[in-house]
Design goal:
The chain is of the alpha+beta class. It has one helix spanning about 30-40, and strands spanning about 5-10, 15-20, 20-25. Strands 1-2-3 form a three-stranded antiparallel beta sheet, with helices on one face. A hairpin with a 2-residue loop joins strand 2 and strand 3. It is elongated and about 75 Å long. This is DUF2188 domain-containing protein.
Length: about 70
């Protein structure tokens, strides 16, 4: 982003960041607004939030029956 200056502002519904004339969505805390502002401007070292919809699928161990191997079966 060409203009990487932003301002954290308090709104009626929480906190937001402002870049130029554009104001972000509201966040519940100043820290959350700051993190998202860093992400928006591409600040090095900014931590990206995990998107649960893009996480790899994890198989539950109980989804498949457990084979029973016993003596006397041939």
């Amino acid at each position: 982003m060409a203009n990487d200056r932003y301002e954290i502002i308090e709104t009626a519904d929480g906190w937001a960041y402002k870049i130029g004339d554009a104001v972000s969505d509201n966040y519940p805390s100043r820290q959350a607004a700051l993190i998202h502002a860093d992400l928006a401007v591409g600040t090095p070292g900014a931590v990206k939030p995990v998107d649960p919809n893009s996480a790899p699928e994890v198989e539950e161990q109980f989804d498949k029956p457990t084979p029973i191997i016993g003596e006397g079966s041939a």
